[in-house]
Amino acid sequence: MGRFFVDPGDIEGGLVRITGGDADHIRRVLRVKPGELLTVCDGRGTDYIVKVEELKADRVLASVVSSERTATEPPVLVTLFQGIPKWDKMDFIVQKSVELGVSRIVPVITEHTVVRLHDKSDAGKKAARWQKIAYEAAKQCQRGIAPRVEAPVDYAEALDMARDSELALAAHEKAEGMSLKVLRGLKVRSAAVLIGPEGGFSPGEIERALDRGFKCVSLGPRILRTETAGIAVLSVIMYELGDMGR
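RESULT FIELD:
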């Protein structure tokens, strides 16, 4: 049974409207026929079983058979602030973070970021690409939301965006005396995770994070690649605070 996201406004009066690329995929690739069932999610944590009623060139209309809360969303909302890495590593980070249950991804430009965004248009194109990857990953792993990938921000703005999180962690290879064991026994509903690009954070950036209430944590004696570090932290968070440890 195919799974697709729609805007809440596309669900009205017991009918669901699927448009855009998903409608074309349903018609041309899946070759769905009237009467067949699909799963549709409103992006807010509710799943709908729907029966296809009509297939047109620009949309698919379906009727709601049943609905229920999505069972795949973790109880903790995690925002990943990821220093933008080189090449296509960000694609991998976005995909795997969504699979692990991240709620939002914010690409961050730091002192050691090598990738240069030429203008807002360039940043917007990259964000759109990463958003598409997040959307496809959310469908594949049956998420109840399609996590948002924000447009790239600078380091100062990232720290500002993290201020409302109950828990803020910054992974740093030189952190002493604090590991991810700090998560044991905690009860929080939101967390921010700050990961540096290749080369990590500068000493000044770490000081600024500490001043903003971040806890610097070590990920062990081995130096992890940037595309590994965030996934490692998210895995432990979901085990200790989320739904992987159930």
